[in-house]
Amino acid sequence: MSPHRLHLCGEDPDVQVPRDLFTGQCPKKPGLIRLLGYLCVASSFVLPSFGQGITVDHTCTDLSKIPAEWINAVRDHGWNMYYMYRSHGSQVPYGFQALSSSEANYAYSIAERALPSAPRAVNIFGWYGAVDGSALQGSFWDGDSGRAKTRDVLTNNPTINLASWASSGEGRDYRPQDVADYLNSMAQLEAEFPNVTFIYTTFNAQPWDDGVDQQHTFNDNYLGNANQYGFRTQQNNILIREWCREHNKVLFDFGDIDCWYNGEQAFSLYQGQPFPREHGHYNLDEVGHTSKENAFHKGVAMWWLLARLSGWAGPPPAISEARFETPGQFKFGVTGNPNGRLEIQASTNFLDWATVLVRTNTTGIVSFSDAEVPSFDKRFYRVLAP
To answer: CA torsion 322→351→315→243, rounded to 10°?
Structure first.
């Protein structure tokens, strides 16, 4: 038997269990634990879903991973969204439109400062302020006057059950206190409207340059010091991510989606410190200061989020890069829901399990390296997402 080959039992691919590594027989399914596969060296993985706050990021842009039944669940749920945005935020409506144009099942309807009522569709009360400058924080969450405007919209449209404010270039100018004001103010609105799910967002990751003539298309007036603003944006995004994770909030990680293309994350430097920034592949000004492809990814990620909010647990975590890294050291990675907690356990007999790692999946993949392998004749691993 190849040491890295999966051998599974069961007709349902979502609840398959491994064959016994030695007899080849299918074992009985355990009672309360959902088994998805054992990686032989021997390694086992138990990956049920874990209920907590929801984050969508660059790992949530593969449309093929959203089951059709959950797209239909989104359509049947009756999601009515209040979405205030300017230029960068227009990437999400563009993504919705592109999806709907290619596949009618991704039905949506958006109206300007009004709530449409299309059947079996995501209906969006859009507030697009790029023309008149009205979609600023002062019209949504900043101060008593900003929150009052959001209260008016939600009170006058009682069927709205989602609300989000998409920033533009604010992230490069905000100080930590500004970020705290945003988070606390959104939480206050959330407490006042318990039937509305507020979607927090990170800032776009476009501020960057190389100090000469290469920069993002949005930064013509920042050439030479855009990296300072990019670094500040990243620090602000870290604050938002950590706060949302600690408080179990719903986060649309706009900035993280910007930074990744084809499995590669883009970085620039500020005073010798790397920070993630929008990938050069998206450095076009086609829609919302980015490429249509990036905007399409934002639309997919929003549908992914709506599916999660409708009850989908997300795809089962996947094993990646399982290997002996050095003699006597076995390493593997596990991908799973962003910000989901993963617990890795080890056993020598499939009966007695000991926890060897507990970690929150903050980067899209949790890596595990076991240097104790030489101490055992055989060792099995499983990953729980309780």
So the answer is: -90
For residue 236, which of 272, 207, 263, 209 has the smallest C-alpha distance?
A: 207
Alpha carbon distance 200, 282 (integer Å) = 23
Encode burial over 177-202: b for 16+ CB neighbours within 10 A, e otherwise: ebbebbbebbbebbeebeebbbbbbb
Low-confidence ranges of the chain (pLDDT < 50): 1-51
Tell me the C-alpha distance between 233 and 376, whole Å: 47
Distances (CA, A) of 103 to 25, 68, 106, 261, 332: 43, 12, 6, 23, 37
pLDDT in tens, 103-120: 999 999 999 999 999 999
The structure tokens listed for 264 are: 């590669």
Closest CA to 97 of 373, 296, 356: 296
Its pTM stands at 0.80
State how far the Cα of 73 lies from the Cα of 150, in Å rounded to an integer: 27
**Tokens standing for residue 238:** 């870290």
Instruction: Name the strand (E) or helix (H) holding 185.
Output: helix 176-192
Between helices 143-156 and 176-192, what is the axis angle to 10°? Answer: 30
Tokens (6 digits) for 348:
């020598």
d(CA 278, CA 251): 19
List, in order, residues 6 or more apart from 385 with CB less than 8 Å away: 47, 48, 49, 50, 317, 336, 337, 340, 341, 342, 343
Q: Residue 86: exposed, middle, or buried by beta-carbon count in 10 A (0-12, 13-18, 19+)? A: buried
